[in-house]
Amino acid sequence: MKRIRVIDAGFVTPLESMAIFHAVAEVMEPDDDPVVTLVNPTQPFVSVGLHQDIDLEVDTAYCELHGLPVIRRDVGGGAVYLNRDQMFFHFVYPYTMAPARVEAIYSHFMAPVLATYQALGVPAVFRPVNDIHVNGRKIGGTGSARINNATVMVGSFMFDFDMDTMAKCLKVSSEKFRDKLRQGMQDYMTTLTRELGQPPERGRVKMIFMNAIEEHLGVKPEESELTTAEKEALVEVRALLLDPEWVHQKGRRLVNTGVKISAGTYLVEGVHKAKGGLIRARMLTRDNVLEDVEFSGDFTVFPADGIERLAERLRGATLPVSAEGDAAKLQRHIADEMNALGLDIPGVGAEDFLAAFMHGLHRE
Fold this sequence. Notes:
This protein has 364 residues and is α+β, with helices and mostly antiparallel strands. It folds into two domains: 3-247, Bira Bifunctional Protein, Domain 2 (BirA Bifunctional Protein, domain 2, 2-Layer Sandwich), CATH 3.30.930; 259-360, 2-Layer Sandwich (Enolase-like, domain 1), CATH 3.30.390.50. The chain is 38% helix and 27% strand. The chain is built from 13 helices and 16 strands. The chain has a six-stranded mixed sheet with strand order 10-11-6-2-1-12, with helices on both faces. Strands 13-14-15-16 form a four-stranded antiparallel sheet. A three-stranded mixed sheet has the order 4-3-5, with helices on both faces. The radius of gyration is 21 Å and the shape is globular. The chain starts with a strand and ends with a helix.
């Protein structure tokens, strides 16, 4: 039986909790043993997805006031508040050992996670695209990415969760909306503490999880430390995750959306909630031609640069004058480009990108 290296870093800084799995993935070779890392952050912070625009998704003023670092991960998904009450796991596999399709990655690596919850007495089930639910409430989400030669799947065991602070960290349109967000999380999220009456011991959860990994993934867990190459990569990854250009890289070319620049030229934003996540399309249009476009959101896309490449291919496309216009032609164009690029975006299709475009169209 092939082994899986278990790197349990314990309680570490927010930066370290993100950097460790990135470093392991950066230097993984196709023939290496797979790795699972375990971490708990010592202090709270906000993690944002690879394709998100921080200024649109996160209340950065609140985070700065309360000393909450904002760290961008090289994995898709949404902004989330993280703290020591969550034990994070990161499966890092040579891509040759992992399923190729994103949805298959989730179902494959979710098996030992669900088994662990169930062994603890929590009837967790997988809810596609990538959530874990208990009696209709979400107890955890997961994310996946391809980093160099590694396939990565990340998630957490949610011992407890500060829903009030989470609601305060996100950028919302009004305080009334924030109250609705907070109440929504109370109604539709749960934790191990809520389900069991008290949090289980971390060591017990780890032991059950390791046994489930061996049973469901067919690999033998062995305690391990970072290799020399991984330690060297860790230094570089720490610097990258702290670099403002990395943290704020998305959504910086197109700003001040919804502005008339000159006759027939507009900077607008369209938003659409697809099954696979939120899509934001920022568009510079001139005489109804898509001069420039930029996508952000909490979707997952393989390959990681695929969303930028799709945007490049859509520049120059003609936009429908209205929802009643020739939208079908644009949808076929989007679908053709997605197929040509081999994009894998679970729960998101050409019709969803079209819907984001239509939402943002300027109308006199």
